[in-house]
Design a protein that fits this description.
With 328 residues, the chain is an alpha/beta fold. The protein has two domains: 2-222, Spore Coat Polysaccharide Biosynthesis Protein SpsA, Chain A (Alpha-Beta Complex), CATH 3.90.550; 225-305, no CATH class. Helices cover 38% and strands 19% of the residues. It is built from twelve helices and twelve strands. The protein is globular.
Length: 328
């Protein structure tokens, strides 16, 4: 877990972790120089967890990598401090995947957590996995829908949202590039989609496990772009192009050329004409071109899955993989 000024919800998140039925648990927390009381809360758990206190905010990706390097378990749970877990979340997620060696990641059913409302644990869906559109935007399956049982089937999806994603340690080691599981150039935002794309290229499946239920406070959504802090929008734009530069092949890009190029033109025009504060995000991508070229070469040289198998994930609707049969 990575914390940064997370005092508002951290205590309840930690309590939900220690209420898990799965044992043993190893909790590793990296705090990115919080100043809001987060560290006072963490101090209460120092006897129960490994806690790293950073002197500066090194970003979500780098902090998660530091935690992953210390982890000893077969499964690693990437968890945001604004998530509340059902007591059997980890047990259900592991049970769904442990008999399927091709599964490298598991996402559960995330619902919206609304701590400021009387019915805080809502039945509004936050995410049941991430998917891509042909224009290379990625979104959360089922987001904002009322949960009426429409996502009750265990099935393969493109990837897991990093708010609460379970990763097989074997996959963590396999997909790491230059020792980085999450790409640290991302700092924060979209690093989960980048990881999911890289895992797909290397043949690892992501399993949606509907019985693993948690609640997440969703602050960053597409429709709230105008209200978000500049830093969030800046990294979001930068990381959209970083992800593309490393993971997409030329043949796949050719298949998606028109919708992807139109969307790119809209994003670039917005940065140059409507909010020039974001233009430096485009320049940041250019400055990283040599690193991107090197990482791309590593990823593409190791890929195990051809484009014709990946194309189905870039659809006009949330693409679903095959249903997962119970292991015999």
């Amino acid at each position: 877990m990575t914390t940064y000024n997370s005092a508002g919800l951290l205590q309840r998140c930690l309590e939900s972790i220690y209420a898990q039925t799965h044992r043993p648990l190893e909790l590793i927390i990296v705090d990115n120089a919080s100043t809001d009381g987060t560290r006072e809360i963490l101090a209460k758990f120092e006897s129960q967890a490994k806690i790293i206190y950073n002197d500066a905010n090194i970003g979500f990706a780098a902090a998660q990598n530091a935690a992953a390097q210390l982890a000893q378990g077969d499964w690693l749970l990437s968890l945001n401090p604004d998530v509340f877990l059902n007591p059997d979340f980890i047990a259900q997620a592991i049970a769904a995947a442990e008999e399927h060696p091709e599964v490298g990641a598991v996402c559960g059913k995330l619902l919206r957590w609304k701590p400021d409302q009387p019915s805080e644990f809502s039945q509004i869906i936050d995410s049941t996995g991430i998917y891509f559109l042909p224009n290379l935007r990625h979104l959360d399956r089922g987001a904002k829908e009322l949960d009426q049982g429409q996502f009750e089937t265990s099935e393969y999806v493109f990837g897991a949202t990093g708010a609460a994603a379970l990763y097989r340690n074997e996959m963590v080691q396999d997909v790491a590039v230059e020792g980085e599981f999450f790409d640290e150039h991302f700092f924060a935002y979209r690093e989960d989609a980048d990881l999911a794309w890289r895992a797909q290229l290397l043949g690892w499946q992501c399993l949606y496990a509907p019985r693993a239920v948690a609640w997440h406070v969703r602050r960053v959504t597409p429709e709230r772009r105008e209200e978000l802090p500049l830093a969030i929008n800046w990294h979001s734009i930068k990381n959209r192009f970083l992800m593309r530069a490393k993971n997409i092949s030329l043949p796949l890009y050719a298949r998606l050329f028109f919708p992807a190029t139109l969307r790119d033109a809209q994003v670039i025009a917005y940065c140059l004409l409507l909010d020039r504060r974001l233009a430096s995000a485009l320049m940041a991508v250019w400055k990283l071109r040599h690193d991107l070229r090197r990482k791309r070469k590593i990823i593409q040289s190791r890929r195990r899955v051809p484009d014709n198998q990946l194309l189905r994930w870039f659809s006009t609707r949330p693409s679903r993989g095959s249903q997962v049969e119970p292991a015999r």
